[in-house]
Design brief:
Length: 501
Amino acid sequence: MTEKTVLGIDIGTTAVKVILISPEGKIVAESSKPHDLLSLHPGWAEENAVKWWTNTLAGIADINSRFPELVEKICCIGVSGMVPAIVMLDEDGVPVRNSIQQNDARSVDQIDRLKNEIDQKELYELTGGVTNQQHILPRILWVKENEPEVWEKVRTICGSYDYIAWKLSGVKTLEINWAVESGAFDIRKREWLADQLERYGIPVSLFPPVNDSMAVIGETKPDFEAETGLKGGIPIIAGSADHVASTLAAGIIDEGDLLIKFGGAGDILYCTETLKTSDRLFIDFSDVPGKYLINGCMAASGSLVKWFTNDICRSDDPDVLRKMDDEAAKLPPASEGLVILPYFLGEKTPIMDPNARGILYGLTLSHTKAHIFRAILEAVIYGFRHHVEVIKELGFAPKQIIATNGGAKSRFWCQIAADVLNRDIIAYPAHPGSALGVAFLAAKAAGVFENWSDIRLFLTESRHFTPDPEAVKVYDKAYRIYRELYTSLLPLNAELGSLYE
């Protein structure tokens, strides 16, 4: 029987996931409690932070009801969550409104104003980014200007996982990557841009102290034991941004490790020991001290596949993806001359163009649903390749490429990745995600694991894919067309958007 366990909690978009891990490198218990993403108006993305907390308590109680002997042995706790979601608390630590999520798009007017009023070159030099909808200042200003009665009550601003850490410990804190992604934090001096915030009436005092992810910020309060079985006095770390924790859980810990995540969106993260920024990519601090993650996010990846199977094919067959894989695998690389631009939600990195649009180029009457399906899979990997090229232009060289998330379950899609990128791909189809990453981080803080490489104890199921030289040749040509399509059609994108304004 294991002597210690560590608790990991992930505040996700649709559920709170709670897991327990052991020193033997195993997930020994897990529970998931669902909640809803709220969109009260077009472009809004909110959630009920109080529901996150009740789900956290319910998840812990669920595990305790089944494995009380494991809950009794918890020696440390870590929480991960979406960044930079905004949770606003009153003087008693109670949320004054729903959270405003990182993908919320309500603050268009504030973004336009800030872009004109703030020196974007200077902002980039200080923060590693320019004003965009993910930054906290435009969204906070929206509340200040549109909900003054709410704003008057705000005494603390924090993130999703910081809120849960506060509820567990009674200590208010911010994890470093919430600050880094806020767009209001000097990533080298590690301090708030106080003059800029206060210029817009945002006191720096609203933000709790910023801590490194593995720093112990407090202990569990004893009054949870009756409800959940969780005893008082258990150390709690500052936690981790969800995508950073997920990267740790994939074993991305060394210079040159590259992760491609086939989720609803497509994430690309490169581990380096150098703090170097790009106006085409994002930057985060790795959970591994002294290392950083240069990263990008494609707006549509798995969501594009879901759109095609659900809305276009109108299939309710639970096995539709496997069947489509089988049909598309019979076709040659580059889908017999069909190239797709995957910008169906605009695009984040590396082109940073909300006006970008999806394109199906080269359609003929001989093309079938299988051709389009294959071209969609190829388009996502073309997008990954674009990111890899930007990373190389910064002077970095990926040494190994890891694939995770839903799409990594598809052998076919992973083989396309190997062929388009012309690199070996190691896929983890059963990757457990952010909850494992932050649980391991807490275990490392507690001394349960000695080496960062011990995370690989949990990665027991892998698949290896090598490039097909003939397919590589075809994809090299198709990729050039992919890149030129966007450039050629760029002047028409804004005009197209004006048709339905």
